[in-house]
Amino acid sequence: MRKPVKVGLVGLGGWTRSIVEAVEKSKKLELASCFSRTEEKRERFAQEHECRSVRSYEEMVKDKDIEGVLLITPNYTHAEQTVLAAGHSKNVFVDKPIANTIENGKKVIRACRENKVILSVGHNSRRMAEVREMKSLVARGALGKVLSAEANYSHSGGLSLTSQQWRWDENKCPALPLMQLGIHHIDNLVYLLGSVRRVFSFMGRIYFSAPNKDTTMTLMEFSGGTIGYLGSNYISPQVYYLNLHGTKANLFFNLREGLYIQKSGATRREKIEVREVDTVLEELEEFADCIRENKKPEVGGEKGLESLAIVEAAIRSSKSGKPVDIEEIT
Amino acid sequence: MRKPVKVGLVGLGGWTRSIVEAVEKSKKLELASCFSRTEEKRERFAQEHECRSVRSYEEMVKDKDIEGVLLITPNYTHAEQTVLAAGHSKNVFVDKPIANTIENGKKVIRACRENKVILSVGHNSRRMAEVREMKSLVARGALGKVLSAEANYSHSGGLSLTSQQWRWDENKCPALPLMQLGIHHIDNLVYLLGSVRRVFSFMGRIYFSAPNKDTTMTLMEFSGGTIGYLGSNYISPQVYYLNLHGTKANLFFNLREGLYIQKSGATRREKIEVREVDTVLEELEEFADCIRENKKPEVGGEKGLESLAIVEAAIRSSKSGKPVDIEEIT
Prior knowledge:
The structure is a homodimer. Chain A is α/β, with parallel strands linked by helices. Chain A is 36% helix and 26% strand.
């Protein structure tokens, strides 16, 4: 067994727990240090997880012992943090989205390329066994031609949002539900159906007291002709589904019930059994493998930027009231 | 028991079977005559259903014995047929959509108003027990504020479409799946959420050999702030669902499984049991009641025109690539 990759963890928010559980489960990674701005928080975390607490992010990236950083931090900090890490030859795993703006996304990609470090973007949804199976079914022609795709990822996170949190602010997290939740399905859809040509979006602040959007609906035209819908809100009870409609069959996937196929002529749906995957463990172990074997991660900078560009197109469309060509964005 | 309303049936296509079954089940209506252009078809139908076969539509509407006509005919014939019937003081039940164009829809309304006859438009979907229950739950505040609505009605009717059929032709049936199927959900959505302010639509001919659209996706902004999505295609295996996402709960309805509620904080959904309704019987008996009691049907000309205007807005939007205000249409 080769030596585990020593990583530093940045950002100790809600999603970090899933990341840490995976790192501690894996023999390919070792949690060596942690940083968050709140001293008390990071000291407690360091004790609990037996890693070093560092007083600054600079200290972490200058540490010769550290091989990679895991950035589970606010979107608007991703670029600066990645550029600094890459400049110190640290490999970077950054949670989705790659950055808060296209310009910053490009900076992230450039810094990692120039410094020859691995860049992996945490779009873990596509690693779900159900999404892999959907991809395989589409590729094998089980659906015939795919006419349309529908997806929704929403939850009630926004009900407890406070003005102290960065997601409160539209400038720090534009198109909040689409940027934080819906973007998972954007990666899924591009994975399943290929690139997007044109985007239109309605975004509303229907219920929020926060000065940010709480509800978004986005239409996408894919280069292959398929049209897609993506709903995302930050208020309602959790919804996560992804459906494809084809000439020969429909696929229905939702988190509660799993994956079903409805074949031509049938109104009944058949369950498709899959073996569950720990998607976070898989993406982090892939990150470690890429570092050790100098391979490219499945979702690197370009794929991360492609998803961000679709969100950006949706934002521009909702402002202009017109569809936006992806070509205009990147 | 008062005397049943004597009706003439026009159009002997696929949907007519459901209409006739309801008429024959009801004590409020009596099928007195039938007409379709194909002589053999109408003679056979008249024998089977023990009614008079008439040689022309004019003959039917001039028949003193007939009190109302049931128009189960192509969209583009609704206006002319209604105007003729109303001119002979016949009450009119016309299947959805009210007409093929806004102009013709207005003609239909005017003719019935001027001749003081009942006009009922066959949007039967809202009469489903599940949709009634959704309306009641929304009205009672069980969902809190409704943020978004999602609906899809699609089936594979288009796979067997031939150039002999009027639906083949985009001029005779523009936005085919939306005009024929999706319009049911438009009526449902307006019933549940109120009027629509703005519409955007992508429409594609993704698979059809017919020179008509096979797939549509439409976004709607409701006057109350809610945003809605409606998918409709004429190719894939049948899909019929209607979901609402609210601040306090989500509702999920599909034809296969019925109605479910997911309350705040829950990932599980609870089934809501309802008593099934024969929606076609109900709308036809309401038509008879309105004739006998001089009442207004639930879905009269105005409601029928409102749904048609949303389809028309979607068509214009898909052509111009811009959202269309409903105000521009009517």
